[in-house]
Amino acid sequence: MRNPTVQHFPQRQPFDCGEDEIEGIGNYHLTDNDHDEAETIWDPLQLAASSGNLVEVNALLADGRNPNALPQGWYGKTALQVAALHGHLAVVQVLLASGAQVDAPGGNNGGRTALTLAAGATTVAHQVQSTIIDRLLHEGADVNHPPHPYMGRTPVQAAAEGGNLTILRCLVALGGDIRAPAAKTSGRTALQAAAEQQHIEFVVFLLQQGVVVTEDDMRVSQNKAGVTALQAAASVGNKKLVKTLVDAGANVNAKGSRFNGCSALGAAAGGDFVDIIWMLIDAGADLDQVEGNHGRTAMQVARVRGSMNAVRVLKDAAQRRAYMSSDIDHILTSSNA
């Protein structure tokens, strides 16, 4: 029997300045056959927990099934993790009472603890989500459990990504680290996650709590498929969010990720977001900045993506810059004559 309700992660990541399929990054390009191989048979208790079948969960536990059976497959989850993700409160309570390990690691790819999955859940009623998180915390769940190196999140990062501000505030109040570094591959800090999902209130909250945008950006260029908060905001064309981050001191020319990365200007150009392009140029964006393993400028990103409005605007900006530069040279030459 196969898992009928697999949900790998609560959120998908829209940001990607590259066009090529690179081995080892996400499952964005997996075929149906790849999924067949990836989703191996789950433990019966994990299946029952995933579907919220409390009767079957109780029967399996009474029959001696291990509540801590290891995750199966690339994106496998323990019974507690999958119950927490899907908001099956009664199942969570039974599993905890049966000795389920609250901070057990997840599968090989992007393994997340039960608390992290619950904090980032997007399809669970907020009251149920809060109750599950309270139960996990009561059982000693680590509010600062480090992220899995591949697509991992801390509980705070997951909450910033997920969209429940009450959960984020709660975790921060309990000592959750708002400055925790992102996972090495496809990771997101809390600020980056909030920006990518366009949670403006979350971004404002994190800034008010002391996140420094320039410090938050520092590790992005060293990671695979990383993104600064400003690059994420530019990639989705959110003017209010871009302005908020620029006003907070975001570096418009911060380096992009070494895999599929690009500048904030390149991100806006790829999405054909003309207003964002002008905002970034006015803030000092470098038209010639080259980023990522593709080594592309914003103009090249726009051409690859077929963003012809962006191409036109970037050409116009380059011509204006050249005109201003020649004008300044003329003035300097005249003054030295």
Concise description?
This protein has 337 residues and is an all-alpha fold.
Which spans have pLDDT < 50 for at least 5 consecutive residues? 1-6, 20-32, 34-39
Q: What is the name of the CATH topology of the largest domain?
A: Serine Threonine Protein Phosphatase 5, Tetratricopeptide repeat
Q: Considering the protein shown, what is the CATH homologous superfamily of the largest domain?
A: Ankyrin repeat-containing domain
SSE series: HHHHHHHHHHHHHHHHHH
Outline: elongated
Radius of gyration: 23 Å
How would you classify the helix and strand content by structural class? mainly alpha
- How many strand elements? 0
Helix content: 40-55%
* Overall structural domain count: 2
Largest sheet: none
Number of separate helices? 18
Give the averaged pLDDT, no decimals: 88
What does this structure look like?
The protein has helices at residues 32-38, 44-51, 54-62, 79-86, 89-97, 114-120, 126-138, 155-162, 165-173, 190-196, 200-208, 213-216, 229-235, 239-247, 264-270, 274-282, 298-305, 308-336. Helix 8 runs antiparallel to helix 9 (165-173), helix 10 (190-196) runs parallel beside helix 13 (229-235) and helix 13 (229-235) packs antiparallel against helix 14 (239-247). The model is unreliable at 1-6, 20-32 and 34-39 (pLDDT under 50). The chain is built from 18 helices and no strands. It folds into 2 domains: 1-211, Ankyrin repeat-containing domain (Serine Threonine Protein Phosphatase 5, Tetratricopeptide repeat, Alpha Horseshoe), CATH 1.25.40; 220-337, Ankyrin repeat-containing domain (Serine Threonine Protein Phosphatase 5, Tetratricopeptide repeat), CATH 1.25.40.20. With 337 residues, the chain is mainly α. It is 50% helix and 0% strand. Keywords: ANK repeat, Repeat. Pfam families: Ank_2.
